[in-house]
Amino acid sequence: MEIFLKQRIIKKKFKSLAKYQFNNADKIHTSGFMLGISSKN
User: Distance between CA atoms of 33 and 16, rounded to whole angstroms?
Assistant: First the structure.
C-alpha cells in the first residue's frame, strides 16, 4: 500500500512538471512566433 501511495505522489509531481514545461514551451513558441512576424516587417 505504501508503494502505491509513493507512485501516486510521483505521478502527481510528474504531471505538474510536465504541465509547467508545456506552459514554458508554449510561451517560448509564442514569443518566437511574434519575433518572426516583427522581423519580417
Answer: 25
What tens digit of pLDDT does each residue of 2-27 get? 888 999 998 999 898 888 888 877 88
What does the block give as the cell for 2?
505504501
pTM of the model: 0.46
Residue type (1 letter), 26: D
* Sequence letter at residue 13: K
Burial 5-29 (b: 16+ CB within 10 A, else e): eeeeeeeeeeeeeeeeeeeeeeeee
Q: To which H or E segment does residue 39 belong?
A: helix 2-40
Three cell numbers at 26? 508554449
